[in-house]
Amino acid sequence: MNILAPVRRDRVLTELPQYLRKEAALHVHKDFHPRVTCACQEHRTGTVGRFKISKVIVVGDLSVGKTCLINRFCKDTFDKNYKATIGVDFEMERFEVLGVPFSLQLWDTAGQERFKCIASTYYRGAQAIIIVFNLNDVASLEHTKQWLADALKENDPSSVLLFLVGSKKDLSTPAQYMLMEKDALKVAQEMKAEYWAVSSLTGENVREFFFRVTALTFEANVLAELEKSGSRRIGDVIRINSDDSNLYLTASKKKPVCCP
Ligand SMILES: Nc1nc2c(ncn2[C@@H]2O[C@H](COP(=O)(O)OP(=O)(O)OP(=O)(O)O)[C@@H](O)[C@H]2O)c(=O)[nH]1
Ligand SMILES: [Mg+2]
């Protein structure tokens, strides 16, 4: 990845992408949190946009389509032949959200039991967990709870964002899909995850889904930065004045224009 290259034009987010289903959305606000919008306008996003790379892990049963999902988004390719992921793999994606550079590291993990132990060592430090199941295989939906439990052992359940993604939508008839969606929405609600249904073969919802992951991860990061900064305002300019031949530091006291 060339970190100096400009962000691709199709990776620029100026608005909050919307959820797929209201019943299982992480939040239903139409716009980014006002404090986030304001912080971006005032260039007060702290480490977000400068050094921070957010880690996203993708877990789920073997052959549910984790690798294909990442490849469809990152490379716009689809391979119909199954090649098991051995251990882990990752892709970097650079975005610009509300004018702020933001990078995601997408970790593709192995679903096969024999590689699970290597893969699980990479779970730590995730800001978002994507749990994938096959919309045409009810057992893979049932197993999502175990995948989530394993991933949460290595992460802070109170701050990590969860997404439950049904894959291979192109293989279901509308009636089959509706049945599966009912069960999946229930599981997503129990997990407090946002529900999505995608097809990596046709590309349906893939871009929308990753944009939503990016936007919500970005929003959570900026809010956390603002919280952390407390009374010290992120981005405040430290000025060096040289009055009276004494050098001293003063923080800019400029009041925020739009922050609530
Ligand atoms: N029809 C259809 N097939 C898909 C789709 N996504 C993946 N597949 C197929 O499902 C098989 C498994 O896909 P992978 O992406 O390799 O599965 P995985 O979850 O990464 O598997 P592991 O790496 O073993 O955990 C491949 O043959 C893919 O071509 C989809 O959206 N539609
Ligand atoms: Mg794979």
UniProtKB/TrEMBL annotation:
Alphabetized UniProt keyword annotations: GTP-binding, Nucleotide-binding
UniProt xrefs under SUPFAM superfamilies: P-loop containing nucleoside triphosphate hydrolases (SSF52540)
Domain of life, per lineage: Eukaryota
InterPro entries: P-loop_NTPase, Rab, Small_GTP-bd, Small_GTPase
One Pfam assignment: Ras
Keyword Transferase among UniProt keywords: no
Record's keyword annotation contains GTP-binding: yes
PANTHER family in the cross-refs: RAS-RELATED PROTEIN RAB
Protein name: Ras-related protein Rab
